[in-house]
From TrEMBL, chain A:
Thioredoxin domain residues: 50-131
Protein name stated in the entry: Thioredoxin domain-containing protein
Highest taxon of the lineage: Bacteria
Lineage start: Bacteria, Bacillati, Actinomycetota, Actinomycetes, Pseudonocardiales
SUPFAM superfamilies: Thioredoxin-like
Family matches, as InterPro entries: Thioredoxin-like_sf (IPR036249), Thioredoxin_domain (IPR013766)
UniProtKB/TrEMBL annotation, chain B:
Residue ranges of the TM segments: 12-35, 85-105, 111-135
Gene source species: Pseudonocardia hydrocarbonoxydans
Name of the molecule in the record: Membrane protein
The DUF4395 domain, residue ranges: 9-137
Top-level taxon: Bacteria
UniProt keyword annotations, A-Z: Membrane, Transmembrane, Transmembrane helix
Length: 140, 149
């Protein structure tokens, strides 16, 4: 038995548990941000009926990114006025830098004028995201 | 990384991560460079040949999956292969450390791989995938700065 190895093992497991609990609490939590110019970053312009742009920053090797895209597809099907744009941070690091995003997936929501409404990292919680968009999308 | 990789049962991915955690814990406790070398081979098989050719997923399919209900969701193989590649690099560095007498290097590299495997097994969190975004951003930041300088 290697006593240093044992010590490192215990420390690593404690650290990983703390990090895991912290990340789990943070995942999907809705935060406020003050970014602007969302539509330009997505290379799009809002159509007459569009009210919200959900700009998703993703990596090609990220399972939660794919789940997030599915969840937003489902949201779009239920609630008109939502536009979804997905950007690969590997190809557009400038977008990640402009928005100050370090994790994928991160979803940043913008209103018609391109001002940020909210953002969240990790897999969104469906009910929370729905409720957070009520003020701009109107009642369900 | 082939696009035609079949999709994976996420429970199998976490099962493999749990076994990896146990093996890496034994490496830390015994200081065995050879056991870490074996784990490096396991990582390499999953990363380069694909998870379906690696031993832990094989154990899952043979002994565990038949006792479970069919998977309700599936996961793409590419992210998993990437994380196994990251694991392979750490296991390789650790093996070199242990086998050349640089025990500290072996311990540190093994601990990093263990944290990643444990986060996946216990929380379903893919550290390799998160690192991809960070590393890539850092790399392009440097190239753009270099180009504009």
């Amino acid at each position: 038995m290697d006593p240093i190895g044992l010590l490192v093992l215990v420390a690593a497991l404690l650290l990983a548990t703390a990090a895991g609990l912290l990340l789990r609490r943070r995942d999907g939590r809705i935060r406020r941000g003050a970014a602007t110019g969302g539509w330009a970053l997505a290379g799009a312009a809002p159509g007459a009926e569009d009210r919200v742009l959900l700009l998703q920053l993703s990596s090609p090797v990220c399972t939660p990114c794919r789940r997030t895209a599915e969840l937003i597809d489902d949201l779009r099907a239920r609630r008109p006025g939502v536009v979804h744009a997905e950007i690969d941070v590997a190809q557009r690091p400038d977008v990640a830098r402009t928005l100050g995003v370090l994790r994928t997936p991160t979803v940043v929501a913008f209103d018609r004028a391109g001002a940020e409404l909210l953002r969240l990292s990790g897999l969104p919680r469906r009910a929370d995201l729905d409720a957070a968009l009520d003020p701009v999308l109107g009642p369900r | 990384m082939s696009v035609s990789d079949p999709q994976l049962d996420p429970r199998g991915v976490r099962f493999a991560a749990a076994l990896t955690t146990v093996v890496l814990a034994i490496v830390l406790l015994t200081g065995s460079g050879w056991l870490l070398a074996a784990q490096a081979v396991v990582f390499a098989l999953a990363a380069f040949a694909g998870p379906r050719f690696a031993p832990y997923p094989l154990l899952f399919r043979t002994f565990v999956a038949p006792r479970l209900s069919p998977p309700t969701e599936r996961e793409d193989a590419a992210p998993v292969r990437f994380s196994q590649l990251v694991g392979f690099v750490f296991a390789l560095v650790g093996t070199i450390g242990y086998l050349t007498g640089l025990a500290a290097l072996g311990v540190v590299a093994t601990a990093f791989a263990l944290v990643a495997a444990f986060l996946n097994a216990a929380f379903g969190f893919c550290l390799g995938c998160e690192m991809y975004a960070l590393i890539h951003r850092f790399r392009t930041d440097r190239t753009t700065q270099g180009a504009s300088a």
